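discrete fold record:
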Amino acid sequence: MKRYLVTGGTGFIGSALVHRLVKDGYTVRVFDNNSRGNAERLKPIQNKIEYIEGDIRNEKQVLGACQDVHGVFHLAYVNGTRFFYEKPDLVLEVAVKGLLNIIQAASQHKVEEFYLASSSEVYQSPPTVPTDETAPLVIPDVLNPRYSYGGGKMISELFTLHVGKKYFKRLMIFRPHNVYGPAMGWEHVIPEFIRKLSVIPRESGESPFSIQGTGEETRSFIYIDDFIEALMCMFHRGEHMQIYHLGTMEEVSMRSLAERISQKMECAIKIVPGDLRAGSTQRRCPDTKKIEALGFVPKVSLNEGLTKTIGWYLKELNHG
């Protein structure tokens, strides 16, 4: 059976991918330094995988990780909005050095397949919503540290497509759109809302609930299980040198999201608008026709996914 390397394999998405690849019978090697991931996510299958602790910025370590693998899923990156603003230098270093190292190492070892995790952040505020894969990639303000993330992903896409095509027989890019679920970490909007709502007394009546922006800003969300199904559709049936948006087409306002979570947690809230951080996008929702044409159909509704996610986080908060 083919061996695949998953960089960033102890992260939220990376670990879910590793579990699926193992389940499907592939041999898997994981490469991560656990700076943002957690090896505990792989504990149930630790005897079925090979794990290498290493830094994607270390050329020698990456070269070793690419030996004797058929393909690479490159997910190693620094995620979380707070880090975009606070550590843009680290975000860019991991993006650029990591991408250069993994492409060079894979080419030296004659790896045949390469799958790059990009992001919806590459197109920032898109000209049309829902947004398909042809949207222009934009950095509105190079002085804004937020764009370290999107900028790093843009560099990664360009380098992968125009340099990687010389080395790989099968090469694809996927752009996740707000993947969520249990154990996703705390630096994302859904866990943040759950944490804030968990301290509101149930009998307190309508409580003020502050958010960034007006509350009319929108996103779409895809549950982790559905996301992995979409990724597997691309993996098995996607085309060489193509880009795929992985997400759902249900566009949800932040106000609606907060209200849905509060209802499930039996809290009454009154939304209090706040300032939106510079560079934040007003609307974002992918056009997913391209991945759906490969057979992907989302199965977990936002309401069902929120119920599962809230239950997991409340257990964590109660045990903490």
Q: What stands out?
A: The two ends are 41 Å apart (CA to CA).
